[in-house]
Structures are given as C-alpha cells and as structure tokens.
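Q: Could you fold this chain for me?
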Amino acid sequence: MVATVRALALERFRWIDGHADVWAVFRDPEALAAVVRGLVAPFRDEKVTAVCGIESRGFLLGAAAAVELGVGFVPVRKSGGLFPGDKVTRRTDPDYRGLRHTLRLQRSSLGPGDRVVLVDDWIETGNQAAAVRSMVEECGASWAGCSIVVDQLTGDTGRVLGPVRALLAASDLPACGPSA
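A: Sure. Below is the predicted structure, expressed as structure tokens.
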C-alpha cells in the first residue's frame, strides 16, 4: 500500500511559481482515499481518540483521517476566524517563511483520556506541530505523534515532536521546475 500511496501522491504533486502544490490530491477521490489511509496506517493501533488538524489543509486531511480512524476531529485555528469558547493559545516560532502564527484550540475539545495525532500535508520547521503538541498536553491529553504527507524536517527537530510519520520526504519530490 505504501508504494501505491507514494506513487499517487507523487503523480499529483507539482510546483507552481516555485510553490509546492498538493491540491490535486484532493480532486482525485482514489488518491485522496489512499493518502488518508496512508496517513492513519502508522497510528491505527496507537489507541488514538482524536485527530488534530491545523487550518487549512490540515482541516481537510485531519477530518478525513478522523473518520477513517472512527474518532473525533479537533480543529486548530489560526488567528482571525471565529472560534467560540475558552481556548488554549500558542504563538509559534517562525516558519520557513519567517512568519509567526497564533494557533488556537478549544480547551473543552480534549481532556485527560485523549490520545492525539496531528495530521497535515507538509512539515518544514516543526514549529506549528510543536505548538499543537504543547496545547494538547496543556489540555491534559497525551500526544501520539504527527502523520504528514511531506516531511521536510531537518536535524533533530523531529525528536521534539514524537513520532513523525510521512508518506514522502521532501527529497522524494521532483525538483522545482518552471512555472506550471
């Protein structure tokens, strides 16, 4: 299955104006279903009770992964959008573009019996994932790790995040070519 998932994701990957584009995976139901199954596979036996996803592609992949696992989905919002109730908030260290984000999680969405996996499309610095882990643990839940489509982490960053499972490494992607 892993080879099939990798092939489907790579077939739909492209560079546009120097930016990675994984949106074609969402348009193809076979590719999307395979990617979601691939994302949950490493955590299927980990007693996960909730999947977190960071706005925006993490909402789509995370919700689909939660359905596949038969557990709930917990959104992590970036600043600006409506998000009622008491929240746990973290300001991230700079991302690969040098931007800092304020992430928010509803405090009541997780508690001491929960075991959480973060699902997203790409991980570069790990700063957003580290912030989510910190918020999850502040709510009393335990952290299972991260499941990612493309892993671009360097150095020892992954150690802070717990297990990081990825369908593709950034080095697996084709070189950034001319604009498509």
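A (continued): The helical segments are 2-12, 24-27, 29-40, 57-69, 127-138, 157-161.
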